[in-house]
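Shapes recur. Our protein:

. . .
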Amino acid sequence: QVQLVESGGGLVQPGGSLRLSCAASGRSFSTYAMGWFRQAPGSEREFVAAISWSGGDTIYADSVKGRFTIARDNAKNTVYQQINSLKPDDTAVYYCAAAAGIVVVAATPLYWGQGTHVTVSS
């Protein structure tokens, strides 16, 4: 079992930046690929980014490439999502997820966090 707790959300002005964190507890965090998803009001949850267990491989949704950066610190059992040039369309609940591989975590994660709210508004 892996427990995931997100933090770092909040209200941000358009053009601003934010760093989300996801702290993991449980077994073998460093063996899991990690991912971020988001769900905007009235929309389905969508994939945002994923990172391999080593941090050596990353994948991003086309809609966030160039603005979102996923990273992890296995010594701290934490995965991060840096978000720059925030837009109102980025308003959503952001979820952390974990699975055995980077392709799997992008499609069918095994574990989910509870989410952190990000609101982009002036």
About this structure: The helical segments are 102-107. Residues 102-107 form the longest helix (6 residues). The first strand starts at residue 2 and ends at 7. The chain has a mean pLDDT of 95.
